[in-house]
Amino acid sequence: MVDFIFLGPSKTASTWIYEAIRPHPEIFVPVTKDIYFFDKYFDKGTAWYEAFFRDAPPGSLCGELSHDYFASPEAIRRLHDYNPRARLICCLRNPFERAYSSYLHLLRVGMFAGSFAEALEKFPFIVDEGRYATNLRHIFSLFGRDALLILDFDELEASPERFARRIFNFLGVDGEFVPGVLHEKVNTAREARSVAVARMAKQAALLLRNRGYSNFLGRLKHSRFVNWLVYRADAQAPAKAKAAACYPEPLVQLYRGELAQLSVLLDADYSKWSTPAK
Which of 119, 144, 240, 244 gives a 20 to 30 Å CA spacing to 48? Predict the structure, then answer.
């Protein structure tokens, strides 16, 4: 049975967290970072899911990182049915920055070519992942507050040592372990060499997942050659995104309301994120 899950949301350092915990001697995570079992591949069954962890050394803590779970009530419910005592981790980031980062990712990998406002209409998950209070209330209703470690993206930038130690201490493993990735930037924003190539790579990745080759896909994602082939090393923001983000007023009001609720829910002040960066 899997012991802990990173829930997301996306664009909140999930790759950095994966690279930080992967070498810990007491932890096992699969080669594939995003398995998406509890949302996209649940019909494959728990035997399929747990096969990703069959190489785990005896006594190790098994975990998964899939950033889509945070905003999926169905995935959270399924996860609770699977292991009601699972330890959960999420990372919160300025919701406006997080939403815009998701948009930039869609541009860079060739999945979308429109404006930010158009992306919010076409991809509702961008908005839904920033409904922090709403999503956390649902998680708390099933697992309780103590089952969830809530990380702050700003803390990673300020003190990666403390950020990593909080994760290890929460999981009950050696908190003094120093991951090699501690002061590195991982999965930094990259621009595709060709939109067509990036789109084909995305489609190929989906096909590999659907055919049961997720571990092979994980190895490909770690391949320097594959990354060189698909992405530019010195990428700048796509031309459409070079202008400052313009946040639609409905999004501003929605996120401000969520942040006010979040401050009450967690008894902490999140007003620092209520003004969108320009």
Answer: 144
